[in-house]
């Protein structure tokens, strides 16, 4: 399906090729503008390798939600100075509002795998990188 093409029926989506996002995690799009012509939603698999982390960033206009499918433990740091830290384990859900700075760190020895959804069709439209905050999360 070409981006911008109007879908007139529902469809089974085989998914798109994985890519490394601007923020550093691996995205495997399932439903997106590229795979299904979505206009408002991204749904896919997001993976952080063992010991991996995202770079500090926020999403200007979009909310993000994740279901932690497998792995061991991920630390989610949020807030203006990434001062709010929580540990997530498989079975947990994570929610990040628009404009909230955040970093996710895989503290485990296995890949952390999430089902992720965002109310933007490409998952990269409004990413704002915050390199000045990266050193705040070891």
TrEMBL record:
Keywords: Metal-binding
Entry superkingdom: Bacteria
Cupin type-2 domain ranges (all copies): 45-115
The keyword Membrane belongs to this UniProt entry's keyword annotation: no
One Gene Ontology MF term: metal ion binding
Keyword Nucleus tagged: no
CDD domains: cupin_BLR2406-like
Bilayer-spanning residue ranges: none
Name of the protein in its database record: Cupin domain-containing protein
């Amino acid at each position: 399906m070409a981006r911008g093409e109007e879908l007139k029926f529902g469809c089974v989506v085989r998914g798109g090729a994985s890519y490394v996002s601007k923020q550093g995690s691996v995205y495997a799009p399932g439903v997106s503008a590229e795979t299904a012509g979505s206009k408002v939603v991204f749904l896919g698999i997001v993976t952080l390798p063992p010991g991996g982390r995202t770079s500090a960033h926020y999403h200007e206009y979009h909310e993000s939600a994740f279901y932690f499918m497998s792995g061991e433990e991920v630390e989610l740091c949020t807030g203006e100075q990434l001062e709010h830290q929580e540990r997530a384990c498989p079975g947990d859900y994570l929610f990040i509002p628009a404009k909230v700075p955040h970093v996710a760190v895989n503290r485990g020895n296995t890949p952390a795998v999430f089902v992720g959804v965002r109310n933007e069709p490409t998952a990269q439209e409004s990413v704002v990188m915050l390199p000045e905050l990266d050193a705040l999360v070891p």
